Every structure is written in C-alpha cells, then in structure tokens.
Amino acid sequence: MPRIAKADVTNALKVAAKTIVDAGGLDGRTSRAEMKAKLNDLPKEQRALADIFFRFVDHRDFKKGAQVTASDVTRAVAYAKTHLVAKYDLNQNGLSREEIGRMSLTGKRAVDLARALKSAAADGGGGLTAAKLGVEVGKHAKDASFMSESDYAPDFFAQPLPAGSALTGASLMTALNGPLAAHFGQQNGDLSAFTAEQYSARETTAFIKRLTTPPADGDAFYTKSAKAFEAITGLLSKNLTGLTLYKVGPKDDQTGRLASDRGLYAYVLVGRSADGKLAGVSIGSVET
Question: Are the C-beta atoms of 282 and 180 separated by less than 8 Å?
C-alpha cells in the first residue's frame, strides 16, 4: 500500500468539516438530528468519516443537548491535523501502512476518505461528469413541471468552483451569476438585489420528496412530472456530492435576508460533480 500525504488526509478532514457545518443550515449550529439526516444523503465514501468526526467534535464540546458550531468544527480540525494525523508521520514523508495502523479510528477514517477522493480524481469520480450528467437530466426535464403561481421546468447548470472553495450562498451567487442573471432577467448580470438562503439537509430531503410525490388524485400530467423529477433527483443524488438546496430571490429591504412573496425565485439543487464542477438544477417559482 503506497504512502499517503498528510495534506490529502487533512483535505479529507476539511471535507468532513464542511459537511458538518452545511448540515446545520443558516443558523451555524448542527444538532445531532440534523447530522443524522445529512448522513443519509452522503456518498458512502464520505459517510463514515463525517459520522465519526461529528462525534469527535461533539465529544470535545460535550454538553447535554448541545449543538456543534462552525467554530467548534474549526478548532477540532486544527487539533486533528496535529494530534490525529501529523504526529504519526514520523519520517515526514507521508503516512505508511504501519503509521496508519497506529492512528485513532478518526484518523484511519480520514485516510480512507483521502484514498477514496484521490481515486475519484483519478478515475473521474466513479460518477458522471457534469456534461454527461446534463445530458441524462435533459432526457427527463421536458416532462418535469414545478407548479407555483406559474410552472417551470428544471434547468441544468454546470459552472466552475475552485477546488477547496466552500459552497455558501455568496459563492453560489458568484459561481452561478450567468444562469441566475438570465433567470431573473438581469441583462447586466447585476445580482446585488438578490440573495441565497441555504436549506438544511432535512429541508432539502423534504423538497425532493415534494418534487417526486405523485398527486393523490392521480392526475396524469403531475404523475408524469413526479416520475420525471424522481429520475432527475436520483441522478443528482447519485452523481453529485454534498447535494444541497438553496433558494435565491429578492433581498428584504430592511434585513438584507431573503424576502417573502416578492415575485420570481429560484430553487437551486446543487452539488459537486465527478469532474469538480458545481452542478445541479434550478427551478423557477413565482410567489406573491
């Protein structure tokens, strides 16, 4: 088994850390229930480390009923880099099989994910590239219709986001400036009057269920739409990591947060593709 660089293991810890923070949504606090829901949406390669690293962070700041904050996670990553990873690289030449064997379970899981991430980078991620995913999603998009005060079909997008960059509302708005500006009719690309709200893992799952549940009355049009959305969200879940829902729309004039009932919005289901693109679908929604 070849040695593995500490930097690769540290990157795996950062992936797990981002997963934990993302699971908490906008309030910056991740509960055990939110983390449990998030684990269900993760690829199996990420699940084991995210689970045990959350438990590690939670234990370090243990209080009954406590929630893990972003600062808790940051401190835990710094501690883990030094005490769970670097101290075992005795020769400063990467971690050998013997050195990995002496690591804690958290450290070993970080190595497992680091190897999986390197393998994914080498073979295209074991999933579809963004371009191929777009072709597959396109086969079902014409039959999918999201009904609000109007109806919209999902639009696939794939845009670059630098490796290691955190996906936040702000970075989403920047990366998707072109598609979002077109959606909102902003010819000059100015989205300063708009903002993005991140949904929790549980809310993301609930939204997907809303898209894929056939109508109780058996209406043929919406039954067909639900099946199309089931195919689309299945493709996204299988081929994108960190699948998360955002809602983009006008800012509230007073708070700067997402305003309610101000016309056209976009629901954005987004994750990272096998070739590192920010990919997913945006769905229009009119709310007044």
Answer: yes
32-52 confidence digits (pLDDT tens): 888 988 888 777 778 889 999
Percent of the chain scored above 90 by pLDDT?
A: 47
Q: From 85, 96, 101, 7, select the one nearest 53 (Cα to Cα).
A: 85
The answer to whether residues 107 and 77 touch, using CB atoms and an 8 Å cutoff, is: no
pTM of the model: 0.61
Torsion of the alpha carbons at 212, 218, 221 and 223, rounded to the nearest 10: 20
Closest CA to 14 of 76, 61, 56, 63: 76
Give pLDDT tens digits for 185-223: 998 899 999 999 999 888 999 999 999 999 999 999 999
Question: Alpha-carbon distance 169 to 241, whole Å?
Answer: 17
**Angle of CA points 9, 60, 66, to nearest 5°:** 120
